[in-house]
């Protein structure tokens, strides 16, 4: 990478930007900044504000976006923003702009992360001939695969966060019925995301007859950590259901070389998460329990893995 490249990780809540360079095979990120999506009408405005703040005018860029990239006009799954590639190139005076799925970029960045960028959730031997699943809750529920391909590995982006939620208890059925009053279908992303935490909390309050006061996911997490019983129940169910979803995804994809947890939610609740039923629910697959027991699970605890992945994809 001869010249710095503009890289971005654009989700439903935040947009992160940086200038990236490659040096001896390593990705160097500098001038990393985060902008709130709600403060800007368009991605062009946010990217322009970033470039103006650092006084740079790069010729190339790679944007990782929270949604499927199927054509040149990208609509975000959990944001009002729309990205038209031709208009963005013109607006930022770019010679080259590549747009990729955010979890595809995250998965691409996983191999270049350092050991200290991960936190071990569950040990396991793994199987280097099998895929690695990258999954995690943020504004949505992202999912991608790192798949062995000869001597190399390929990243496959998926929309696995939109598979159907399968309740397994009376309480979970009641949660699903509550959500069906507002939506035609209940995907796992409806409950396993930042907004999903709020939805779960509303549902559980309605089921128990408790009063619900409008709150955000961070406030529920903070209350749970501080000992609030209702918030703890919400966050505990969230972690358990995430364990079940991650185990289901590992079964469905054969990801026996490991599961990597990403997204912005989990590092904030790490201590609570480690005391939760996540691992038990990950393993709880009946006669397929032994298939999952040797799969290692790690959590990404660094901020910027998707930016590193975007930098790598910018030169592919």
Can you give a write-up of this model?
This protein is of the alpha/beta class. The chain folds into two domains: 5-108 and 304-314, Nucleotidyltransferase, domain 5 (2-Layer Sandwich), CATH 3.30.420.40; 124-295, Hexokinase, domain 1 (3-Layer(aba) Sandwich). β9 and β10 (141-149) form a beta hairpin. It has eleven helices and 13 strands. The strands form three sheets. The chain has a six-stranded mixed β-sheet with strand order 8-13-12-9-10-11, with helices on both faces. A five-stranded mixed β-sheet has the order 3-2-1-4-7, sandwiched between helices.
In the CATH hierarchy, what is the class of the largest domain? Alpha Beta
How would you characterize the largest beta sheet?
A: 6 strands, mixed
Q: Tell me the β content.
A: 25-35%
Secondary-structure element order, N to C = EEEHEEEHEHEEEEHHHHEHHHEH
Number of domains: 2
Q: What would the CATH topology of the largest domain be?
A: Hexokinase, domain 1
Arrangement of strands in the largest sheet: 8-13-12-9-10-11
Tally of alpha and pi helices: 11
Gyration radius, rounded: 20 Å
So what's the overall shape?
Answer: globular
CATH architecture of the largest domain: 3-Layer(aba) Sandwich
